[in-house]
Amino acid sequence: MSASASALTAERSRIEVAVSNMANAESTRGVNGQPYRRRDVVLASNPVESFDDAMGRTGAVGVKVADIVEDKAPFARRYDPAHPDADAEGFVAMPNVDVPEQMVDMLSATRAYQANLTAIGLIKDLISRAMELGK
Amino acid sequence: MNDIITDRSIMSALGRQLTVAVAKQSVAASNLANLDTPNYRTRDVSFDEALNQVLPGGEKLAVTQRGHLTGQPNVPSGQLEDADGLPTRRDGNNVQLDRELLHMTRAAGDFTAAQTALSAKFRLVRYAINESK
Predict the structure, then answer these.
(1) Where exactly are the structural domains of chain A?
(2) What is this structure's pTM?
(3) Count of A–B CB contacts within 8 Å?
(4) Where are chain B's structural domains?
(5) Cα(A131)–Cα(A32) distance, rounded to whole angstroms?
(6) Contact criterion met (CB < 8 Å) for A4 and B80
(7) From A4, which residue of chain B is nearest by alpha-carbon distance?
(8) What's the pLDDT tens digit per position in B103-118?
(9) Half-sphere exposure of B86 (CA within 13 A, CB side)
(10) Which of A5, A20, A31, B32 has its Cα between 20 and 30 A from that of A115?
(11) Which of B36, B46, B38 is nearest to B103 (CA)?
(12) Mind listing the pLDDT tens digit for each residue in A98-130?
């Protein structure tokens, strides 16, 4: 069950990063004065320590957020001389956020979240049935 | 002589079914947890049916291949292997959502069936104990 729970946390952070990217899709002034840089979540498998491992049997594999990396590509430039942040040539550096792409990421993370929630429900059901064995 | 269906062998078989169901469910849940992990390969667990011989004395079976049986006797040990024939997506991940959910649901069904039968057996035993008082 902790494998599925780890997936809930990881997918939720994916959703949060996607939402943050979308909210800042037009932010030309980020934290350090530079335009906002798109952030991506890197997921990695994470074996769960369990009794089964000690017994030499199959252990569950969860997932963890290995890293949240900032996109290192050069900023996209948009021609907009009227913009307060336009440079001498009239170009504004914009964040490299593609809103439809972030929406798709968010949807995929939501779907995975729901699947793992179902898994937890099933496991919980099995455990409560196992308790009934003794009744 | 091997055809005698003893009470004990029925209980052992049901117990084995419980263990198998839990293992399959656990592997399916692991696959689901890694639905979005790059380069993760789907895993399946398989149990060797031929090794499922319950001996009345509960002795350990002779191991013909190292790594097949571990731990206690009569506890089935599954082989973890990579599932093949699954399409891989762009991030190297080949976990199929519906396949894993289906496996999990089926394993839960198997577990419930075995648990119901085992409960009934236990109830009979308890009835027998109580009635003799």
Answers:
(1) 2-72+98-132
(2) 0.77
(3) 106
(4) 8-86+93-131
(5) 56
(6) no
(7) B33
(8) 999 999 999 999 988 8
(9) 20
(10) A20
(11) B46
(12) 899 999 999 999 999 999 999 999 989 888 888
